Amino acid sequence: MGPPERPISTWVGGEAQLTLVCDGVRCMGRRDFTDATAEAVEKLGLSFRLALMELDVAVREPVQPHTYYRALEGRVRGPLLVFTTRLLVSEWAITRPWGLAQPQIGAAVVDVGALSREAGLRGVLGRQAPLDRLRQRLAKVVAHELGHLVGLTHCRKAECCMALASSLQNLDRRGLSPCRECTGRIRAYARTCP
Ligand SMILES: [Zn+2]
Ligand SMILES: [Zn+2]
Nearest bound ligand to CA 153? Predict the structure, then answer.
């Protein structure tokens, strides 16, 4: 499999919605999101047609992938990847997920807000992380969630992009590429695609 032909086909939403503001500072532009996604797609060796969506202007319900998918019904073909700064689960959850995927509908959400902070004491989110680290984390989480969308489950190899990362430190240590076994599963998935 070569590089993806058209890794990103549609950016849903207007240009005005495409800059992420973290703590009042413009920290990421459209380029950062598309670059991180393209990098993840390439590492998975997939040829994805992806719809990307940023922010949750149109959606005010609890953040779950199906919420976005429903809001975009008819406008999205193929996998949907949503970047958000909202909590994906209740604040009271023990761990905050960096992303959530729903393979049944082909949609995943990535929580950029959580990724943009440094890990503080006792799991509390700390100060703003540098932009290059945020981009790396974003690519890793995108690779992980896309892996779920093509049917991968969690992997025990700590360096594999499909390993569970329960903390930002774990995420920073995790690799961006799938391990050999997971790569084999992705290839098997690709063979079943038309
Ligand atoms: Zn996962
Ligand atoms: Zn693996």
Answer: 1
Distance between CA atoms of 146 and 191, rounded to whole angstroms? Answer: 17
Instruction: Give the CATH superfamily of 8-192.
Output: Collagenase (Catalytic Domain) (3.40.390.10)
Using alpha carbons, list the distances in angstroms from residue 124 to 73, 82, 100, 168, 184. 36, 24, 20, 10, 37
* pLDDT tens profile 38-64: 888 888 887 666 666 655 444 555 567
Residues with CB under 5 Å of ion ligand 2 are 155, 157, 160, 162, 179, 182
User: Would you say the C-alpha torsion 37, 131, 97, 174 has a positive or negative sign?
Assistant: positive
Query: What's the token pair of residue 151?
Result: 């049917």
* pTM of model > 0.70: yes
